[in-house]
Amino acid sequence: MTEKKSPRVLRVLLFVNKSKPEASELAGEIEEELGRRRIISRSWFFERGVRKDGGPLRIVFDDDPWDLAVSLGGDGTVLYTARAASPRGIPIMPVNLGTLGFIADIRREEWAEALDKWIAGEAPVSRRLMLEVKVERQGGEALKTYSLNDAVISASGIARLIRLTLLSETLSANDFTRLVQYRSDGLIVATPTGSTAYSMAAGGPILDPEIEGIIVNPICPFTLSNRPILFPPGEGVVIEVEREQRSGVLLTVDGQETEELLPGDRVSMRKAPFKALFIGSDRKAFYRALLNKLSWSGTEGGHA
Alpha helix (H) ranges present in 51-110? Predict the structure, then answer.
C-alpha cells in the first residue's frame, strides 16, 4: 500500500458499533494503519443505544477539528454518526459490517482504498439533505436535534388514533398555511435518504437520495384521502399535537432518539443548514441496494 501524505486527513474519528462482531477488530486495524500514516485517530464505542461505559449515546467533541468520521457497522451506525458529525461539517466514510445497506456501501476490505481515493480527491461523494427537528413547548424550546432518515410522531401507549394538525411554513416569508388535520396512528416526516425506511413500509414514495425534498406520510390514516405529500426544501413543516388525546404521543428521531410530546406541543422540521457528506456512497450504490432489497432484478434476494 502506497502511503499518501495530505493535509486533508490529519485526524480521524471512528464510530464503532460493538454489536457488530467485526467492528472492534476492524477499528484496531484501521487505527494501526492510520498510525503508520501519522494520522491521529480515536475510536468511539457504543452498543444498543449506549456507549461502552453505559452512558447515553452522545459524543462530546474536543476543540481540535476532526477531518473524517469512519462509521463501522450498518445503516443504523451511519444514522448516529451523521447526527454527530454532519453539524460539524465532518465527512463520513461508511464501512458496512451488516447486511447490504442503503447508505453504508464500503466493504470491510475496501476501507483503505476508499481512504486513498478520498485523499487523492477521486472518491465519489453523496450529499444528503438532513432535517432540523425542534419541539416548541409553552413558548420555549424543549428539543433541538437533527435527522438523516426520519422523525416519527406516534402513540406512546396502546395503539390508538392520535390527532395531529399539519402546517406548511414558507421559510423565506415566515408564513404558515394550515393544511390538514390527521386522525391516524401517527405521522412520518422523512428525508429522501429515509424514503426507503419506515416511510416506504407505510406506502410512501421512493426518492433518489440526492433529491431535496421533505416527505410527510400519515400512518394508517382514518380518512383514506390523506395521502403522502412531498414538500420542496424551501418549505418547512410544522405538526401541532392537538390538546385532546386518548393516548400519550411520542417523537422518535432516526429510530434512536425519543421525546415525549405534550398536548399543545409544536414540532417543526425543516432542511438543516448543512448536509451529510458520504464518501464512496454514490447513486449507483443506492440503486444497487434497491435491486437487491426489493428483488427488482427478478430473483428473490436479488443480484444486481
Answer: 75-85
Q: What letter does residue 154 receive in the DSSP assignment?
A: E
Average pLDDT over every residue of 227-250: 92
Q: How many CB atoms lie within 10 A of CB 75?
A: 22
Average pLDDT of the segment spanning 136-147: 95
Sequence ranges of the chain with CATH classification 3.40.50.10330: 11-124+280-293
Rg of the chain, C-alpha, whole Å: 20
The CATH label, of 3.40.50.10330, 1.10.275.10, 3.10.450.50, 3.40.50.300, for the domain at 11-124+280-293 is 3.40.50.10330
195-210 pLDDT tens trace: 999 999 999 999 999 8
Which has the minimum average pLDDT: 15-29, 44-58, 275-289?
44-58
Q: Could you count the other beta carbons within 10 Å of the beta carbon of residue 212?
A: 15
Q: Where are the beta strands (DSSP E) in the chain?
A: 11-17, 40-47, 50-51, 68-73, 92-96, 125-137, 140-147, 150-155, 162-170, 175-184, 186-190, 214-219, 229-231, 235-241, 249-253, 257-261, 266-279
What residues act catalytically?
75
Specify the pTM.
0.89
| Average pLDDT of every residue of the chain | 86
**Protein fold of 130-272:** Tumour Suppressor Smad4 (2.60.200)
Residue 160's SS3 state is: coil
At residue 292, the pLDDT reads 76
CA dihedral angle for residue 70, residue 143, residue 195, residue 148, rounded to 10 degrees: -20
CA distance 267 to 245: 16
